[in-house]
Every structure is written in structure tokens, then in C-alpha cells.
Amino acid sequence: MATTLEEHAGYLTDRIKLARYQEAISHAVQSGHTVMDLGCGSGILGLLALRAGADNVIFVEETDVLEIARRSITDAGYADKASFLRTNSFELAATDPVDVIVCDHVGYFGFDYGLLALLADAKKRFLKPGGIVIPERLTVQLSLVESGECRKRITQWQDGSVPAEFRWVDAIAANTKHAVDLEADNLLDGPEILDELTLGEPAEEFLSWSTRFVCARDATVDGLAGSFSATLVDEIRMSNSPLLDDRLNRPQAFLPLQHPVAVTAGEKVDATVMCRHKDHLIAWIVNFPRQDLTFSYNTFNSILLDNARLSQTQPTRVAALNDRGIARKAVLSYCDGKRTVAEIHNLVRKEHPELFPTAEATTAFVDQVLAWNTDH
Ligand SMILES: C[S@@+](CC[C@H](N)C(=O)[O-])C[C@H]1O[C@@H](n2cnc3c(N)ncnc32)[C@H](O)[C@@H]1O
């Protein structure tokens, strides 16, 4: 919970973000409107919509943070204008269409937490024709980076900081997207605009962008940095570009090189970034033509999968229940709309003593299955 609280405190204390959303929401939301706060977290954006005169706000959030929204909005006196849905929006059946969808799931690179699919699905199923999506457009940006702090994310695995047995993890770190806070003087070139996307429209499943950088000075290239500029409505924008004084209090997405490369002023560096955004996968290729060097990385290579889990995805595999599946099936078979939770606990313990090594483990498992698969 501490990390979750920190995360949401971060959003709530970002003055630039709040000011821009407030301006955009006041502009878009009119009295009589129904608004969906999609991925509402603490509920701050829905609160701004209520203050702007919305008749109704639907708060949608898949995590327990929804309870912070519920209490805050209720205490603010808006309980009769709010509904709270604890669900993943992709699993939410279509509701009465709304006038405005507001969302901040823009991440560090704009698309890196699944925003494109999230808003395309929400617009198609939840928005009135002619309704407004906030943010409405996204500019994806890339920079060439020199940064000792960024370099450390990789070198810490090889410089004696960790016991020798773990040094190979630098290869995992090199294939990972890192959240970093860059300053303007960390940029050797850029941000270059890679793409401008209309949010809410269906996006290609795979996106690929290339750009050429020219190094501003003799330097060491540590990698690439992704950032974004999001147009909320009209000309109201927010960005995490390190070049802007009025940027969001939000990191950039650092895409490393495993080993830094020395370059000279004026040297050209070519970069390609590819993504399968719905799955949060990013690949990047960095080419130094003058030095005939090319490096290629992919966040897929940093997923810590064992071979057994990997082979589970084979379409030709015949799927048979494992012990956990058998246990889940048993628990669900006792949910007949009449039995109490205590009766289900007793039945599982009595009929399936072999499922878990201890009664405590059985109890915890039953509670978890009931929480996820039954309504209150
Ligand atoms: C970046 S936070 C923003 C929270 C809040 N809107 C704000 O501006 O402070 C995004 C939130 O969206 C939630 N979320 C992401 N995808 C979701 C989905 N498909 N359905 C419901 N909630 C989602 C996350 O759990 C997270 O709390």
C-alpha cells in the first residue's frame, strides 16, 4: 500500500498536471453532462468534473484505490452524483453513453501503459457520438541521452555493487524500460517527434518509428529517452519533456544501451522504436553509422519467464487442470447461491483435504477465489 499511496500522492501533488486538467475539464464539461473518470485512482479528475458542473461521474478503477475515491468524493458532498465501479474497463459492460471520458494513463512515453487500446475501447463502448475524450491527442517523442544516473541502472550490475553471481542481470536491465528524471543538458539531441496520434481511434497493433539524431557535442551515448506531449482539449497540453520548465512532475522512459558509446559532435545516430503497446512491449535499435555499430534491445527479453510458463502459451498444448485449477473448480462448485462462506470453507476442508498442505492455506485460497469470482 505504501507504494500505491506514494504513486497517487505523486499525481495529486503535480500542480502542472492538476492545473492543465482543471482547465481542460472546465472547458469540456457542461452542466447536465455525464463523465467517466477512467482509471480514476484517487478520483481527482472526476472531482474536477463534478466541480465543473457534471451531473454525474462514473468512477472506474481496477484496484483498491477506488476506496480512496469513494470516500473523498462522498466527503466532498457529491455521493448522489457519483457511482464507483471496481473493475477493469475492458471487462465492464457498456453503460449509458457518457458525454466526456477523462483519463490520465499516459505513462512516461505516452503509449507505454496501454493508453491507446484503453481509450479506443472506451470511446467505442462508453462515449456518446460527438462526445469528448480527454486527452484527445498524443505526440510521441524521442531523445538521445547522456546521463550518469541512467548509466548506473545498467553498470550497477557489473561494477562490483552486487555479488558476482548476479552480474549477468545487466543484460536484463539493458532490455528494460527505466523511469528516469532527465534535465535538458542530458539530451544530446531531441526530443524528436516520432508520431502524433488521435486518442480514442483504433491504433495499429504494432507501431514503428525511426529518427536520426545529430550529437550536439562530444559525449557518451547511454541510450534513448521517450517522452510525450498530450493535448487534453483544444490547445491545452501537458508534457514531460525535459526541455520544458512547465513540464509534468513525471519521469521519462529511458531505453538503455548495455554499453555506452563514445561519440563526437555532429556524429549521426539512427534510432528505431517499435511497440506492441497493448502488451506494453517496446523494442529499440540504435545504429552508429560512422562506427558501424548497431545495438538492439526488447523489453520482451527482460520478462523473467521460466520455460514451463513459456510453453504454456503454445496453441497446440492440451490444457489440463493443475492442482490449483482443481482447487478453484472445487470451490466454485460449492457456490450455489445458498451456501455461506463458512459452509464453503468447511466443505472444501472436509472434501478436499489434499488440496493444500495446511488448513490456513486452504482458508486463504478459498477467500481469494470467493473475492474474485462472487458478488457481494
Ligand atoms: C496513472 S493513474 C491515474 C489516476 C488518476 N486518474 C489521477 O489522475 O491521479 C492510472 C490509474 O488507472 C488504473 N487503470 C489502468 N488501467 C485500467 C483499466 N483498464 N480499468 C480500470 N482501471 C485502470 C490504474 O490502476 C491507476 O490507478
Structural features, described:
- With 376 residues, the protein is α/β, with parallel strands linked by helices.
- It has 3 domains: 2-104, Vaccinia Virus protein VP39 (Rossmann fold), CATH 3.40.50.150; 138-305, Hnrnp arginine n-methyltransferase1; 323-373.
- It has helices at 2-12, 15-28, 44-51, 66-75, 115-126, 148-155, 170-174, 307-311, 323-333, 341-351, 359-373, and strands at residues 34-38, 56-61, 82-86, 98-103, 127-134, 137-145, 178-180, 187-198, 206-214, 219-233, 236-239, 252-263, 268-276, 281-288, 293-298.
- The strands form 3 sheets. Strands 6, 7, 8, 10, 11 and 12 form a 6-stranded antiparallel sheet that branches. Strands 3-2-1-4-5 form a 5-stranded parallel sheet, sandwiched between helices.
- The chain is globular and about 75 Å long.
- Bound molecules: S-adenosylmethionine.
- The site of S-adenosylmethionine (SAM) has 18 residues, from helix 3 and strand 2.
- S-adenosylmethionine is lined by residues 11, 39-42, 44-45, 60-63, 65, 88-90, 104-105, 118.
